[in-house]
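New to this. Please check this protein:
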Amino acid sequence: MSEFPFADPFFGLSWLDAIIRIVIVVLVMTLVVVYLTYGERKVVARFQMRLGPTRTGPIGLLQGFADAIKLLIKEDVRPRNADRWVFEFAPYLTFIPVFLVLVALPFAQDWGVRNLALGMFFVFAVLGLNIVGVLMAGLGSGNKYALLGGVRAAAQMISYEIPLVVALLAVAMVAGTLDLNAIVGMQDSRPFILIQPLAFVIFFTAMLSELHRAPFDIPVAESEIVGGYFVEYSGIRWSMFQLAEYASLWAFSIFGSAIFLGGWAFPFGEDWGWGWQLVLTLIKSLIMIMLIFWVRATLPRLRMDQLMSFCWKALIEVSFALLLVNGLFLYYDWPEPILAAVNWVGAILFLGGIYLRAARKPSTKNLVGSYKHAEVPNP
């Protein structure tokens, strides 16, 4: 297997090596975000029988750059009643946690910005910081709608972070480590999604909520509370929220593919070298991104009460049950195929229950009863 060309520190200097790697990741991230916005508009347009961007550049490929230039030169407005420092620093505190997540992600074997022994724990810790920026944006705007959007977003993120972390801990129990590179390396013969499908379903669902993607996008939806916690932002500060959103989408896709789809290791990643590893990382992250776009174009938006009830009355209970089942199997050292079979049954029952609940027609009994004795005015 050929060694990755950037596996060793640049020029033998650790501090310079860290700076160069961070700059590379930021440049790649910026380019990825530009084309993720373009890709989403094209993909969703196809689902809705539209064309999407076609004018700027060949088949609209330069539309993302045109939007970026427009946002950079657009006037930056701050409301008169806004808290200046809270309002201006909020976009940075939503973007920096996403950037810190990228630091720990393995793009190929022994290469990322840094390989952390507790990489999964680091991602858990960093993800929670994003809530601070969201609340600052809502509170500092001096707008009751922005404040309501910030409170809703924070409540949603705190709630869905619980099943997200528990599902990842279930995988960490099976792997026996929190090192992301080690977890990926254990999947050289089979990805963990085959033995932990229920954990993947929980992770993917909670990920959609953490990213504020449909059907969990009510805190930032234009039809709900006029656009959410960043409704008062414009220009470059608004673009930072968008950058954080799509950078989070990319980071979560790489993270999820590393945990569940084998990352750079499956198939033949350790045998065919670093070039094939980068291809595997790219393809699997694109698969995750396409699933997210597909869900957005397919499912309707949930109401706030439905969104919170689904988390606290279904997702959290199932995630803790999964943690208990994994603990029992590991304690008694039962065979892995049995653990996989139990997880597949649980995933099928969970998805089937969601489908049956969504397909059930709402009852009109109470609605009719409430108007049974209502007075009808004469025409």
Observations:
- Residues 77-357 form one domain.
- The chain has a mean pLDDT of 86.
- The CA atoms of residues 28 and 306 lie 37 Å apart.
